[in-house]
Amino acid sequence: MPNLNKVMLMGNLTRDVELKYTPSGLAIANIGLAINRKFRDTKTNELREEVTFVDIEFWGKSAETLHQYMAKGRSLYVEGRLRLDSWDDKTTGKKVYKLKIVGENFQFISNQGAAGGAPNAATGGPPAQRSAPRPLPARPAMQNAPHQMAPQDFGGDMQDGPPPDDLNINEDNVPF
After folding, report:
1. What is the rounded CA–CA span in Å between residue 69 and residue 63?
2. The domain 7-173: what is its CATH number?
3. pTM for the whole structure
4. Phi and psi (nearest 5°) for 33?
C-alpha cells in the first residue's frame, strides 16, 4: 500500500534560527514557524484568526543557509515530512512524544511591500531586516571516532536538493 508523508507550510519565523553541528560536522538548524489562518465564525459572523506554531529541523547546507539569511519575523515557505520523536522524561520516567517537521526544501518569501516593507508579523513592529549574511559558527573538529555520525543516525534522508540530472530513471522500472 502506498504511503505519503509530505508537509507544505508558509509562515513567519518565531525566533532566530538556532544552528548546531554534530560531532562529525553536519549542520542542524531548528526554527519555529507561526502559521496564521483567518476564518469567519459561522455563529457570530465575526472574522477570527488562529495561529499554529510548529518546530522544523533542517540539515546540512540548508541549515547553514537558513542561519545566514533568516531572522525572527521573516516569511518562509517550507516543504518537508513529519517525524515522531520519543524519549523518556527524566523527572517522571514516562515516555514523551513530539511531532516535528523535518524540512527538505524551502523558499524565502519577501517581506517587502510597496511602502517599504511589511511589519514584522511576529512582533507587530518594523520589518525584520538584515544588511549582510550572518557568519556561521565554527564547526566542531572532526575526531577519529570508531563511528562517525551519519545522516541516518538522526532519522533523516539529509538530502540538500533534488537528485542529480544524470540519474537516468527509466519510467518502465518505476513500480507504480
Report:
1. 10
2. 2.40.50.140
3. 0.64
4. -125, 135
136-156 pLDDT, tens per residue?
A: 676 665 544 444 444 444 444
Residue with the three cell numbers 538530502: 159
As a whole number of Å, the end-to-end CA separation of the chain is: 11
Sequence ranges of the domains in the chain: 7-173
pLDDT tens column, 10-66: 999 999 999 999 999 999 999 999 999 999 999 999 999 999 999 999 999 999 999
